[in-house]
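Sat 14:20. Reprocessing the chain from the morning session after the first attempt stalled halfway. Input below, unchanged.
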Amino acid sequence: MSGNCDENCAGGFSNSCENYCGGFANCESCNVQPGCAWCPQSNECVDPTTAVCAFSTSCPNCQSATYCDACIESPYCVWCEDTANCQQKGTHCLIAYGCESYCNQIQGCDACNAVKGCGWCENEKKCSDSATATCLFAHTCAAQHCGFNGGSFVGGMALMGGIILLIVIGYAFYRWRTGSKITYREMM
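Finished this time. Tokens:
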């Protein structure tokens, strides 16, 4: 780091260096500021000449964690429920404090499979964290829509009746256009 906080603050950013460094919410934005350093123990940007901390010169790569469990393994990362991705602490988002409970809140196979890190447990009929659950995952939700349904049976029968009626009407129209009469025997 070059310079000290007083020299950097002299540029008109702030009268107080503590306020100057404290204005950076995550490691990347903090570490690029002259006279500031990221303190991972307190998850804040501070003046390294006045703070007692084991400073981090490299920032965690939270965005590389694509699942909730992998994300919260790092003490510097949080899983954002609203964006379904991993971010550095200090990011403003709806934070999941436990991955299992995060996935369990999701209802339905399609909604569950649409969220990174969650999977639909076919045998348990619930959404679970795909990294920790020990169940049979449904990779597609088509199986959820199968099975006998009284409404679909009646609808299918009505469709078949309509198709047969169209065939009969079409045949009768064809015979009428060609000048051939339809006999009673043909109708039965």
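Confidence is low (pLDDT under 50) at residues 1-6, 8-15.
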